[in-house]
Structure formats: C-alpha cells, structure tokens
Amino acid sequence: MTTYGTIPAGTPVSPSLGYISFARERIRSSLGTRRPWKEMVQLRSLSIPANAAEAFQRIKTNAAYFRMNYVIVILFILFLSLLWHPISLIVFVVTMAAWLFLYFLRDGPVVILGRSIDDRVVMVILAVVTIVLLFLTDVTINILVSLLIGVVVVLTHSVVRMTEDLFVDGEDGARLRLRDAASSSFSTT
What we know:
Elements: H1 15-31, H2 37-40, H3 52-65, H4 67-81, H5 86-104, E1 110-112, E2 115-117, H6 119-135, H7 140-160, E3 167-168, E4 175-176
Antiparallel strand pairs: 1-2, 3-4
Helix pairs in contact: 3-7, 4-7, 5-6
Protein name: PRA1 family protein
Pfam families: PRA1 (PF03208)
Membrane topology: Multi-pass membrane protein
C-alpha cells in the first residue's frame, strides 16, 4: 500500500525546543519590519535639502520609514557608552529585554485594559523607562551625551536621506519600495 497523499505524523516537540523555535520565528518575522541597512545608507540617495521645508519633510518621512532602524541605532550608541559601567549595563540589558518583548518581537499591538496601545506610544514609554532607570544608576552625563550623539546621527541621516525612492503604503502610512514599476512585480523589501 502506498502512502501517497498521506500526511506523515511529526515527532512531538519538547516544550523547551518549541519555545526556542517560537522565539526564533518571532525574531525573524519582527526583523522584517525594520528596513534593510543597505537601503538606509545608499550613497546615491543622500543629498543636501534645498530648503528648510524640504528638510522637515525628509525628517518626517524618514522617521516614519526608518523608525525601527533609528531606534536600533540610538540603543546601540547607548549600549556602547555603558560598556565601562557594569551596573548600568545590567539595567540596560534588562530594559532591552523589555524592548524586545514589548516593541521588537510582538505580533500585534499591546493591549491594556481592553485598549490597543499605538506602536509609537509603546516606544516612547519604553524610552522614558529606560532613561529613568539608567539615570538612577548615576551615569547621567554618559547617557545624555550618548543620547545626544544618537539623536544627532539620526537627524543628520533623516535630513540628508532623499525620500523620492520610497513608496507610501496606504494602510498604515509606512513607506515601501516599488521595484520594477513598469512590471507587475511588487516588493516590500
């Protein structure tokens, strides 16, 4: 007798392996929401804006499009500044775990008391909690300087990164690239 068309029974997965594979799957899927780093630093897409209005429009557009990348850049700069402060680094790692589960790795919106919390609100609350906890570890100047450097890096990029090669998605206002506009191939990467 043949087994054509039958579905083979899989071996049961242990709970710890199931959790690891679930976490790996969520990490892969959530990293898809950040924009490719190559797209972010394309040299041909960098230019000085003609006027202040164009600069503000670029900041607004790039902040919406590269939001997750910008958060990663600022957090990485903050992490580098805390390498010589072990207690602050431990606090930072704990808050990064909160960032991972509440911002980077979640599937749907955060729901509190039956109300859906916007992505930007979660980001601001996590940023404030991270900064307050790190201020309590007596590295105030270090944090302020690293945040200032991070904001300057992000603002500089958002001003000089042109937005003409980005495409706005109608649903959530996110920008998507349109790969071969003359053909029917559409890509969100």
